[in-house]
Amino acid sequence: MTKDMTKGNPIKLILGFCMPMLFGSLFQQLYNMVDSIIVSKYVGNNAFAGVGSVGPVCFLIIGTALGTCSGFAIPIAQQFGAEKYSQMRKTIYNANFLSAVIAAVLTITTVIFCRPLLRFMNTTPDTFEYAYSYLRILFIGIPVTILYNMLASTLRALGDSKTPLKYLLIASCLNVVFDMLFIVKFHLGVSGAALATILSQLISGILCLIYVMKMPILGYNKGEKVLDKTIMKNVLSIGLPMAFQFSITAIGTMILQAAVNSLGTEYVGAMSAGGKIQNLIAQPMETIGVTMATFGGQNLGAGKNERIHKGVRQAFFALICYTVVISAVIFCFGDTFASLFLNKKESNFNLMTEHAGYFLRLSSIFYPTLAVVYFFRNILQGLGFSAVTMLAGLTELICRSIVAFAFVSSFGYNAVCLASPFAWAAAGALLIGLYFFEMRKVDAVAKGNCRYKCRC
Q1: Distance between CA 374 and CA 355 in Å, rounded?
Q2: All structural domains of the chain with their residue ranges
Q3: For the chain, give me the number of helices (H) and strands (E)?
Q4: Inter-CA distances, 75 with 115, 141, 339, 382, 400, Å
């Protein structure tokens, strides 16, 4: 099931690798939407707003964990492309050990500081307990999340995007079943939604682990199951900057969410509904980006720089075509889509729907800049330049913070709606420049120009 992306038509390989992941991501978003709709219909709009308001906190913690797993997989992809299989297995062993340590630290820390995080975000009183009940269970389940995502990232590094999809589909279906069981039958409210997520992830993680243990290429030989400080340092040098990148972006989103919370529950619910739609349409952008990280990592390991350039041109053109079409669709029908997440029987339905539609229309104009961020951030990370992508993350943090602290008090919801597009545009411009700068160094080293000794 592994796939060598260093040979064959680049765009055909990229799309072939991308489509299973995209299908899985869209399916995952759809079951997350079902999860939200069940909460809205059976618990209420305030509960939906409470769960939606913790999105930035989840992105901070869970995103940090996922960024770490993705970063750990990059040297695995590079070693697979270079056909250094023994070194690859050693890297996987050390990466798994580090993942377990990080999971323990994150779980303990987040459970302790769950309430202070929500207070920092100005969570509204009528949504606070909903948010806390949901978030605490997700934090307890961090080891489960890391288990599945470390295994999935490893398989994708080897060119296998279909197996993670299979287990993701199983988790998605189980999540909906557990939602109905815990929320509708047992009346566990938002806690039931969180339990459903963790339990379904646990089952998919165990199934993925069983599969990985049976793969011949990942069968350890004598002397490969050793903790190596040099390997750990290399893995952490890529994984931690990617984790930090997620953290920086999430902190900016948290600051902005705190500003939204100060506007009232109707605005929180509107942003939650609009955010669900935005997450769905961003999945192709993110999936192509993740694909490019694997494509770039394998081809860099194989020393095929021209192939990297060709793949980048072809994939970016395909991504922009998608973005233009989806921007037009969301601009015209965003409020209709957002209304699906809200309970029509409650008095604040019309107001939330109106605010959500306004947010989506403004954001859709800037979706091409969001595509740039996903694409060039991931290709840079796949080439081993995780550290420089933190500059883009810092740019996003600064932009969102400026809006939250300087403009929301004066311009209210308009400022909130434009904060992320402003951040995307600034970060996207920076990432494009960083990509061409770093690729010049890579090309120079390939041609024997030792001016860039750090890459020799």
Answers
A1: 26
A2: 10-450
A3: 17, 0
A4: 37, 27, 43, 9, 32
Q: What is the predicted pLDDT for the residue at 75? A: 92
What does the pLDDT look like over 195-233, one tens digit per residue?
998 999 999 999 999 999 999 999 999 899 999 999 999
Cβ–Cβ under 8 Å, residues 327 and 192: no
The conformation of residue 8, written as its DSSP 8-state character, comes to S
Query: How many Cα atoms within 13 Å fall on the side-chain side of residue 421?
Result: 17
The closest of 143, 149, 146, 142 to 24, measured between CA atoms, is 149
| 176: CB partners within 8 A, 6+ apart | 31, 34, 35
DSSP state of 405: I
Q: How far is CA 228 from CA 191, 234, 235, 326, 384, in A?
A: 41, 10, 11, 47, 20
Structure tokens at 367: 């979706």
pLDDT number for residue 230: 94
- Judge contact between 360 and 277, C-beta under 8 A: yes
Model pLDDT for residues 103-161, shown as the tens digit of each residue: 999 999 999 999 998 888 788 888 889 889 989 999 999 999 999 989 999 998 898 88
